[in-house]
């Protein structure tokens, strides 16, 4: 095996090469229209659990499922990255792919497909195994094992999006060649091989490229698989394209296009960016991740909800004349610090907040969390009490019955304790159409975990955005200047700014952040901007 190059080293190699060659034109003759299917593979991922990040080691194996003569594939490494704030783990395998044929191979791409009779939840996943080594068939978990978003630490990762027509043509060719079954279904995403010599998507005879299979999956051990398998179909040919991945900057995708000799750049969903002059712009409405009558897609584009409480819909909201810019503070989880750190400060400043309570936390007896009586103190001080589920799970991984227990159950438990909850806060900001439909049947509004201020009039009241304060902030955004800038922007745009607090996280929400909180409240009041609860804000925005 050749020495393993890290993703950063691979992109650096390509950049150095690009300085001496003109990568805007292809360096080899390529077929840009015909797509050939070369064989199928089974990718086996091992997701380590327990211990610390330094002691954990992921592994990914790739085994041919059909005879293959055009390429040789060897494991080069693996890795993972945990995004704790959104409860997601990125897990990837790196492979060396050598062209053993006598012709150039362009756009070598591992395309995901569903294997009839083995697919779990209509996905490319064919096997799930829990931490105890037991097989299980959690469709919601399988549907949340997805291609990874863009990561700066994984620059050689080449996610590829396919149009519906392209996926259909690949499926037809693979069925004709008897590589997949007549009821198997090719999905609309894949992973493309990159030539580290020049960053291109072409391998000449004897050359070795890099393939990165990157996935994103739930992090929590309770719903995270220890092992899972994915069905992949290796293709070559087609248009020379790069796809802008979720979270990727324009600069990054333009660089990849230049290095790869691409002719087109694909943008997914409502992305309104346009490729630079010499590239063709391709619009892909969404990326289908599953088969079936109601497929799961890469982008969660909000659909109209039905059976919402009081028939509430965003289009029915009409802002009152006094809506104006507003600021709301929502504190998550029901920590005792809500009572010990926030309540005295907010009382001193003469303002109120919204406390999002996970009901099992406050009745657990754990001293980290507030007691029901302490939460009543918040309510008596004019605070709003909101629901944050019963046990703070990742809602998108739950069955319908489990969803009902968490969403309806938390409202019922709060009512039993003497609290009325009309506002909901998604744990980890995790939600999808199924979750939102259930939430809207019991609550008037719901919040995610970040995204900036909410412009008015609202175009949603079940995906309301927040800005992290003190804990779980984006890099460089935990300064007083950043908080003041968020307030100033909300005033300029006449927006509703909602700050997200986690005062129990004393490592991040330290005494400096507590002082910033006091100063921010003063700054907001000095600008004559009202500080209101979530429920009051919604009323001001027209929800009666």
From TrEMBL:
Q: Name one GO molecular function term.
A: hydrolase activity, acting on carbon-nitrogen (but not peptide) bonds
GO terms under cellular component = extracellular region
Any one Gene Ontology BP term: carbohydrate metabolic process
One Pfam match, by short name? Polysacc_deac_1
Q: Where is the NodB homology domain?
A: 325-544
PROSITE patterns assigned to the protein according to its UniProt record, in alphabetical order: NODB, PROKAR_LIPOPROTEIN
Alphabetic keyword roster: Plasmid, Signal
N-terminal signal peptide: 1-20
Asked if the keyword Signal belongs to this entry, the reply reads yes
SUPFAM superfamilies referenced in this protein's UniProt entry, alphabetically = Glycoside hydrolase/deacetylase (SSF88713)
Q: Where in the cell is it found?
A: Secreted
InterPro entries xref list? Glyco_hydro/deAcase_b/a-brl, NODB_dom, Polysacch_Deacetylase
Principal subcellular localisation of the protein:
secreted
Q: Which PANTHER family match?
A: POLY-BETA-1,6-N-ACETYL-D-GLUCOSAMINE N-DEACETYLASE, PTHR34216
The molecule here is called Putative polysaccharide deacetylase
């Amino acid at each position: 095996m050749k020495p393993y190059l890290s993703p950063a080293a691979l992109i650096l190699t390509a950049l150095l090469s690009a300085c001496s060659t003109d990568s805007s034109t292809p360096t080899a003759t390529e077929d840009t229209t015909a797509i050939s299917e070369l064989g199928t593979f089974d990718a086996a991922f091992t997701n380590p659990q327990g211990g610390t990040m330094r002691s954990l080691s992921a592994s990914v194996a790739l085994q041919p499922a059909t005879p293959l003569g055009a390429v040789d594939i060897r494991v080069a490494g693996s890795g993972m990255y945990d995004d704790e704030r959104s409860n997601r783990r990125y897990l990837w395998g790196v492979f060396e792919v050598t062209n053993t044929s006598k012709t150039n191979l362009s756009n070598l791409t591992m395309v995901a497909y569903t294997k009839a009779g083995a697919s779990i939840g209509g996905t490319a996943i064919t096997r799930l195994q829990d931490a105890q080594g037991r097989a299980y068939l959690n469709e919601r978990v399988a549907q949340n094992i997805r291609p990874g978003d863009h990561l700066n630490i994984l620059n050689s990762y080449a996610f590829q999006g396919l149009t519906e027509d392209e996926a259909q043509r690949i499926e037809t060719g693979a069925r004709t060649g008897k590589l997949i079954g007549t009821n198997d279904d090719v999905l609309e995403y894949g992973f493309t091989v990159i030539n580290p010599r020049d960053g291109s998507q072409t391998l000449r005879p004897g050359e070795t490229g890099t393939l990165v299979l990157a996935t994103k999956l739930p992090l929590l051990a309770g719903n995270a698989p220890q092992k899972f398998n994915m069905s992949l179909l290796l293709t070559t040919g087609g248009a020379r394209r790069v796809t802008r991945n979720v979270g990727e900057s324009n600069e990054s995708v333009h660089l990849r296009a230049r290095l790869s000799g691409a002719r087109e750049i694909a943008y997914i969903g409502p992305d309104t960016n346009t490729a630079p002059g010499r590239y063709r712009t391709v619009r892909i409405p969404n990326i289908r991740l599953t088969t079936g009558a109601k497929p799961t897609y890469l982008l969660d584009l909000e659909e109209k909800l039905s059976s919402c409480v009081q028939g509430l819909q965003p289009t029915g909201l009409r802002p009152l004349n006094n809506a104006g810019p507003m600021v709301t503070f929502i504190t998550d989880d029901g920590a005792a610090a809500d009572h010990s750190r926030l309540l005295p400060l907010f009382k001193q400043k003469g303002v109120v907040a919204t406390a999002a309570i996970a009901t099992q936390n406050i009745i657990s007896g754990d001293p980290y969390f507030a007691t029901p009586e302490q939460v009543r103190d918040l309510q008596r001080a004019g605070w709003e009490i909101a629901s944050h589920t019963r046990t703070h799970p990742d809602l998108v991984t739950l069955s319908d019955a489990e969803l009902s227990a968490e969403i309806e159950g938390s409202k019922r438990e709060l009512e039993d304790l003497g609290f009325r909850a009309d506002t909901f806060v998604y744990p980890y900001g995790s939600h999808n159409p199924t979750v939102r439909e259930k939430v809207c049947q019991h609550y008037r509004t719901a919040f995610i975990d970040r995204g900036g201020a909410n412009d008015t009039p609202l175009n949603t009241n079940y995906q309301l955005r927040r800005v992290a304060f003190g804990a779980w902030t984006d890099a460089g955004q935990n300064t007083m200047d950043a908080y003041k800038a968020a307030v100033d922007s909300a005033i300029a745009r006449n927006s509703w700014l909602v700050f997200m607090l986690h005062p129990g996280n004393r490592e991040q929400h330290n005494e400096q952040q507590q002082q910033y909180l006091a100063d921010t409240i003063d700054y907001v009041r000095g600008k004559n901007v009202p500080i209101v609860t979530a429920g009051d804000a919604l009323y001001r925005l027209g929800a009666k």
